[in-house]
Amino acid sequence: QVQLVESGGGLVQAGGSLRLSCTASGRTFSSAAMGWFRQAPGKEREFVARSAVSTWSGASAYYADSVKGRFTISRDNAKNTVYLQMNSLKPEDTAVYYCAATEDRVGGIDVRSYHYWGQGTQVTVSS
Question: What is the DSSP string of 40-93?
Answer without folding.
Answer: -TTS--EEEEEEEEETTTEEEEEE-TTTTTTEEEEEEGGGTEEEEEE-S--GGG
